[in-house]
Amino acid sequence: MKLDETHDPRRKSWVKSANADGCAFPIQNLPFGVFRRKGSKEAPRGGVAIGNQVLDLTAAARALGLAGKALEAARAAGGTSLNPLAALGRPHWKALRLALSGALSADAPAKRQAAIARHLVPLARAELCIPVTIGDYTDFYTSSYHATNIGRMFRPDNPLMPNFKWIPIGYHGRSSSIVVSGTRVVRPNGQTKAADAEAPAFGPSKRLDYEVELGLVIGPGNALGKPVPLSRALDHVFGVVLLNDWSARDIQAWEYQPLGPFLAKNFASTVSPWIVTLEALTPFRAPALQRPAGDPQPLPYLTDAHDAATGHLDIEVEMWLRSAKMRAMKREPHRLSHTSYKSSYWTPAQLVAHHTGNGCNLRPGDLLGTGTISGPARGEEGALIEITQGGKFPVELPGGEMRAFIADGDELIQRARCARAGCVSIGFGEAAGRVVPAPAL
Ligand code: CA
User: Fold this and answer.
1) Scanning 72, 86, 291, 405, which has its CA 20 to 30 A from the CA of 304?
2) What is the whole-number distance in angstroms between the Cα of residue 403 and the centre of ligand 1?
3) Cα distance between residue 226 and residue 214, in whole Å
């Protein structure tokens, strides 16, 4: 993928808010989502975020008289989900991005600016929906730091399983409970067993946690029985969303053997409403993780020089917490995690190549979670269970509350940014969710 005029750091937008320092959605980003006007009964439809506005794609395409692939792409974004746009593929995405960037540029003719200005809706007045209908959801486990931190708690003498460095470990999750940012999260009831108890009990999870992840949104799928080679894998990735894989650690500990995560994970996963495209992320490509000396090289179907040189993404991801008390006291959220995706052991292309390596078919809109993103240093842990070392060392919040795990009323807010010298920084928006008490038994 090459840089083009849509990445030009000098390009400004006539939508003034897009030019503000630190704006998540400058003209170099142009993420896609699905929205409708707040409080309206209109059908949700595709939009693109610019500054503090969202541009209605169908109306803009008409007003601009788009043609060819750009028109086809805008039409595919006219429905209640972006799956048809995801299915079209990179030439279409690029054509639409080029057309939108040109029309939103400060250099666009005044007439073209006026033609679409009336199809902007302030984000503050937009209800943002889940951007794709997720057919299948797979969650990986790609951070060696996370895997080691967790493994140490369960297997002190053997924290990192020997297969970790050979295969991107994953499991099939559940898509029905993936919700968009702003959806409340109901604390799960479940079966747990205290170490010294004779029998398990059923009740509210006492060890509710978050997991800082990113989600890859699949573009064109592959036919059943036809693996996607590593060299073509990123043609099958439409873009990236934020993903908080809420996890009930006490339920997980009791249920996970021998088949892995189940009810500890599938009660809710929160995604951000904006899909940041791989085109927008091109300036932030990074080398694959330098494997420590002594680690095996990936098998041939999982490696090539191009992926090793530019296959990773440099995305800084954060998780913030604001408790009910902090809200009442008007305190700002407190940051718990600050980590970088590029420290993950496997690249996005490796996940796609491995997932389809057995002939498994991916479909447009499928979601591949990266797994919890943790880095090597303190503060870079991507989950409370790592930060508090299994709850032993609670975190103190501003105002004096202590947190070993998440309490009812806590709001968890995930954010991410890409920044690099010579580039305009881009953001992802938020994936936020407030926890409410478990249903009474
Ligand atoms: Ca996870």
Assistant:
1) 86
2) 20
3) 26
The answer to whether 420 and 283 have CB atoms below 8 angstroms apart is yes
Nearest to 82 by CA among 280, 281, 348, 273: 273
Distance 261 CA to ligand 1 centre (A): 9
Q: Phi-psi region for residue 117, left (φ > 0), alpha (ψ -120 to 50) or beta?
A: alpha
CA–centroid distance, 146 to ligand 1, in Å, is 10
Parse the chain into domains and list their residue ranges. 5-129, 140-436
pLDDT in tens, the chain (441 residues): 789 999 999 999 999 999 999 999 999 999 999 999 999 999 999 999 999 999 999 999 999 999 999 999 999 999 999 999 999 999 999 999 999 999 999 999 999 999 999 999 999 999 999 999 999 999 999 999 999 998 888 788 888 999 999 999 999 999 999 999 999 999 999 999 998 999 999 999 999 999 999 999 999 999 999 999 999 999 999 999 999 999 999 999 999 989 999 999 999 999 999 999 999 999 999 999 999 999 999 999 999 999 999 999 999 999 999 999 999 999 999 999 999 999 999 999 999 999 999 999 999 999 999 999 999 999 999 999 999 999 999 999 999 999 999 999 999 999 999 999 999 999 999 999 999 999 999
Per the residue annotation, which of 146, 236, 338, 355 is the catalytic one? 146
Dihedral (Cα; 354, 356, 362, 364), 10-degree rounding: 70
Q: How far is the CA of 410 from the centre of ligand 1 (A)?
A: 20
Could you confirm whether 355 is annotated as catalytic?
no
User: 140-436 falls under which CATH superfamily?
Assistant: Fumarylacetoacetase-like, C-terminal domain (3.90.850.10)
Q: What's the gap in Å between 122 CA and the centre of ligand 1?
A: 33
What pTM, to 2 d.p., does this model score? 0.98
